[in-house]
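Anyone up for a design puzzle?
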C-alpha cells in the first residue's frame, strides 16, 4: 500500500508540476501577444473621415453627392481646406452643387481651393480673393515668357520706357514695378490643368486696386514685360532699375565748372583840385 501511495503521490506531483508549467507558458504567450498588440497600436496613425471624389473629375464639372465618398485620411497630414462632412461642403444644401476648378483623381480629398463656392460657375471671379481685382496684360512671345505661362503661376512685371520728368527726362530705363503676381487666366481660360503651355495674347493677374492703377499707368507710358517666378520661390525681389549707361558700364560724365578768378581788388582815393576830381590808386587795407 505504501508503494502504491508513494507512486500516486509522485504521479500527482508530476501532474501538478506539468500543469504549473503549462499555465506559466500560457501566461507568457498572453503577455507576448499583448506586447505585440501594444507595439502595433503604437504604429497606428489616427485618421479622420474626409470627403473625396469617387471618380476622376475634370475642370468645369459640377459636384453632387453622387460624385463623393467618405475616406479615412491621416489626421496629422490632413491638407488645409479639406471637408469632413457633406454639410460642410454644401452649406446651402445638397441641391446647390459646387463646380470643379482643378482636376481631381479618384479617392482624392476635395479641397476648398479646387471647387467653386456653392452655386458659382467656374471663371475668374471664383478665383479672386476678397479685396483683389483682375487686371489683363497684353503679351506676345517675348513679353509673355515664350508661352510658358499657366494659370496659378507667379510673375514679376518690368516696365520699359522713356522718362519725361526731372533731370533724367528723355532717358530710357527698365524698372521692376511688381513682384510675385498670380496669374488667374491665360487668354479666356482660367483652367489649371496639365494641358501644354501655349503662346497667349493676354494674361490676367490678381492684384489690389492700387496695383491696378500702377499697371494701368505703366501700360500707357511704356511696355510691360513678364518674368516667370519659380515654383515655391519665396524670394522677394528688391528694387531693380537699369538704364543704358549702367547696362553698358559707362560711367556718367561729371561736369566740373571752374570757378572764375575773382578780379583783383583796386582801391582808390579821390581828391578834388579845383573843378577837377583826381582818382589815385592806393594800397588796399583789409
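Challenge accepted. My sequence:
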Amino acid at each position: 500500500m505504501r508503494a502504491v501511495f508513494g507512486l500516486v503521490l509522485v504521479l500527482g506531483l508530476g501532474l501538478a508540476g506539468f500543469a504549473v508549467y503549462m499555465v506559466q507558458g500560457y501566461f507568457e504567450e498572453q503577455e507576448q501577444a499583448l506586447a505585440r498588440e501594444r507595439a502595433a497600436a503604437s504604429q497606428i496613425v489616427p485618421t479622420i473621415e474626409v470627403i473625396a471624389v469617387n471618380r476622376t473629375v475634370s475642370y468645369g464639372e459640377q459636384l453632387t453627392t453622387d460624385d463623393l465618398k467618405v475616406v479615412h485620411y491621416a489626421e496629422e497630414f490632413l491638407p488645409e481646406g479639406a471637408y469632413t462632412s457633406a454639410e460642410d461642403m454644401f452649406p446651402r444644401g445638397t441641391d446647390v452643387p459646387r463646380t470643379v476648378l482643378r482636376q481631381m483623381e479618384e479617392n482624392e480629398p476635395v479641397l476648398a481651393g479646387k471647387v467653386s463656392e456653392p452655386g458659382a460657375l467656374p471663371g475668374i471671379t471664383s478665383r479672386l480673393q476678397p479685396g483683389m481685382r483682375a487686371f489683363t496684360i497684353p503679351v506676345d512671345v517675348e513679353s509673355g515668357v515664350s508661352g510658358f505661362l499657366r494659370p496659378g503661376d507667379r510673375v514679376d512685371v518690368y516696365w520699359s520706357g522713356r522718362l519725361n520728368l526731372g533731370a533724367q527726362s528723355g532717358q530710357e530705363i527698365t524698372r521692376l514695378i511688381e513682384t510675385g503676381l498670380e496669374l488667374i487666366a491665360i487668354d479666356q481660360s482660367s483652367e489649371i490643368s496639365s494641358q501644354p503651355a501655349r503662346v497667349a495674347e493676354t494674361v490676367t493677374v490678381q492684384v489690389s486696386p492700387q496695383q491696378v492703377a500702377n499697371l494701368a499707368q505703366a501700360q500707357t507710358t511704356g511696355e510691360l514685360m513678364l518674368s516667370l517666378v519659380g515654383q515655391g520661390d519665396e524670394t522677394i525681389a528688391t528694387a531693380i532699375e537699369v538704364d543704358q549707361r549702367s547696362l553698358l558700364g559707362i560711367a556718367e560724365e561729371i561736369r566740373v565748372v571752374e570757378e572764375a578768378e575773382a578780379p583783383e581788388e583796386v582801391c582808390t582815393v579821390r581828391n578834388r583840385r579845383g573843378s577837377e576830381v583826381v582818382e589815385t590808386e592806393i594800397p588796399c587795407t583789409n
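A detail worth pointing out: The mean pLDDT is 78.
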